[in-house]
Amino acid sequence: MGAEARVTELLYYQDAYLREFEARVVAVGPDGIELDRTAFYPGGGGQPCDVGRLSVQGRIVPIRGAKKVEGRIWHQLEGEAPAPGESVQASLDWDRRQALMRTHTAMHILCGVVWRDFGASVTGGNMEPLQGRMDFEFERMQQELVHEIEARIQAEVEAARPVRTRSLPRAEAFAIPDLIRTKINLLPAGIQEVRVVEIVGLDLQADGGTHVSDTGQVGRIRIVDYKSKGAINKRLVVALDR
């Protein structure tokens, strides 16, 4: 089997709560090591990558990041890489992953509420553990509106709505109204299977990240800042309690 044909089993899509796993090294290169299966999310869609560590024959090797290059996931190591064919035990920095899952779901709650109640599209966003920002097409953003949005997103947390994921053929996915909430469709034309994330009763979007299983696990969401980024571009900054 050639390198182009290799497909890593994406454990983070099978079980976002998986913390440890066994794998085999299939390649070593300048970008790190490639495993036959991984729970390390390589980053994308505003969500940063996972970090953690490998155990190789009793030796611990930190994993400082993961990234996807031409469809292949490379794990960046701090230390000597295991050889191709070696078996390894891998574990995530779970505190970081869980914080990112909570934050990512919080961003979808925010996006879902703003779209449902105000019809505003997303123009940009980013996140780090327990904090994120999202820009919307609002002409005006006042303190009273910010307080109203904060109350509404917190009500969705308290509703403990289930969060579900599934993959759909591209044509079926794009038949769903308002699947793409961003102002610009960021899905490359070559993607034939579209992963969608649904907060039941609130939000349905194309998305490639990891999420908690219900909105109640997000915890308290506070809007800690807001600002104008243009005539019809307003930014909301959120923070989650630890």
How does this structure look, described?
The chain is an alpha+beta fold. It folds into two domains: 3-92, Elongation Factor Tu (Ef-tu), domain 3; 97-240, Threonyl-trna Synthetase, Chain A, domain 2 (Threonyl-tRNA Synthetase, Chain A, domain 2). Helices cover 21% and strands 38% of the residues. The protein has four helices and 15 strands. The strands form four sheets. A six-stranded antiparallel sheet has the order 3-2-8-5-6-7. Strands 9-10-15-14 form a four-stranded antiparallel sheet, with helices on one face. The radius of gyration is 19 Å and the shape is elongated. The termini are far apart.
Order of SSEs, N→C? EHEEEEEEEHEEHEHEEEE
Beta percentage is: 35-45%
Strand order of the largest sheet: 3-2-8-5-6-7
Helix content: 10-25%
Number of helices: 4
Strand segment tally: 15
Largest sheet, strands/sense/barrel: 6 strands, antiparallel
The N- and C-terminal alpha carbons lie at a distance of: 46 Å
CATH class group of the largest domain = Alpha Beta
| Class based on secondary structure composition and strand pairing | alpha+beta
Low-confidence stretches: 1-5
Shape: elongated
Number of separate structural domains:
2
Mean pLDDT: 91
Radius of gyration: 19 Å
- The CATH H-level superfamily of the largest domain is Threonyl-trna Synthetase, Chain A, domain 2
CATH architectural label of the largest domain: 2-Layer Sandwich
For this structure, the CATH topology of the largest domain is Threonyl-tRNA Synthetase, Chain A, domain 2
